[in-house]
Amino acid sequence: MKKVLFTVLALGASCTALAQSSVTVYGVADAGLVVDKNAAGDRLTRVASGVASGSRLGFKGKEDLGGGLAATFVLESGFNIDTGTSGQGGRLFGRQAYVGLTGNAGAITLGRQYSPYYLALRDVADPFAIGLAGTASNVMATTGYRVDNMVQYATPSWNKLSGELAYGFGEVADDNKKNRSLGGAVHYVDGPLNLTLTHHRKENQLATADTRNSLLAMRYDFGVAQANLGYADNRAENNSKSNDMLLGVTVPFGATKLIASYIRHNDKSNLNRDAQQWAIGGYYALSKRTDLYTAYGHISNKNGAAFVVGNATDDGTGNTGFNLGMRHTF
């Protein structure tokens, strides 16, 4: 009887421990046909990985520490499904790798993470979510895409407001300013409205100059359609200035979702190297986890501007890209 009671208590303790902590394995398998072409007619056709969303294998976990406090972690590895090789230069967990604590006072995380600026561009401003031929990253800056050695604090939501502060250590022995990153974001979320103001600053390796990008991003869900807006102000290391304007729309109906965007890049230097991008795309859901996608994007460059769609060869005038593929999430 004592052995039976001990076994029952042990099983109960095990179930309690499992209920207080969890680890999830997840991922994306994405491959598609990509056709890039410049204005001269030079064409590159290929099978590419992560056309709509980067192919990945990830692990994330959470452990309840009591008192509303929990330990969290994310380890996410990118891979190229067309070749079977690792992404992000061969890093083991090149997409994300961080550990942190979360509680009533907010969350703090340490490691390789997405910058607040990049997440605002991807999740709020760009209907293409930084994917497909219409990705905003063809034209707009994605400084601070991922930041190594980053410490980030995210506030709890208060009266529809929340925010993040991020600091990426440059880890140069003689000067903390060299190669460091600083960023942050403020969000106002009220039902269908998401309004985000974000900024990212990156010092160069000598701390003699920096790159600065500020973005006002908005997403509003009308139910029958979703509208996106982005306005970015940019300053490069050489002090050249530019700004970008993005207008986007998402229209879902049934298993189909159509997306479109227009981006205008205004160069403030004397060279006036302006550019504009038009893009349209669509998804068709085969199930909750599998969809087909297609997209078309075109960039027009002026005065030698060098923006390109995908791997198109820039010839100083314009280029186009076309995608057709499949994405499975698990």
TrEMBL record:
Keywords: Cell outer membrane, Ion transport, Membrane, Porin, Signal, Transmembrane, Transmembrane beta strand, Transport. Residues 7-303 form the Porin domain. GO terms for cellular component: cell outer membrane; pore complex. SUPFAM superfamilies: Porins. GO terms for biological process: monoatomic ion transmembrane transport. It is a multi-pass membrane protein. The keyword Transport applies. PROSITE patterns: PROKAR_LIPOPROTEIN (PS51257). It is found in: Cell outer membrane. It comes from the Bacteria. GO terms for molecular function: porin activity. Residues 1-19 form the signal peptide. The keyword Secreted does not apply. Its main location: membrane. InterPro entries: Gram-neg_bact_OMP (IPR050298), Gram_neg_porin_domain (IPR033900), Porin_dom_sf (IPR023614), Porin_Gram-ve (IPR001702), Porin_Neis (IPR002299). Gene3D superfamilies: Porin (2.40.160.10). Homotrimer. This is Outer membrane protein (Porin). It comes from Janthinobacterium psychrotolerans.
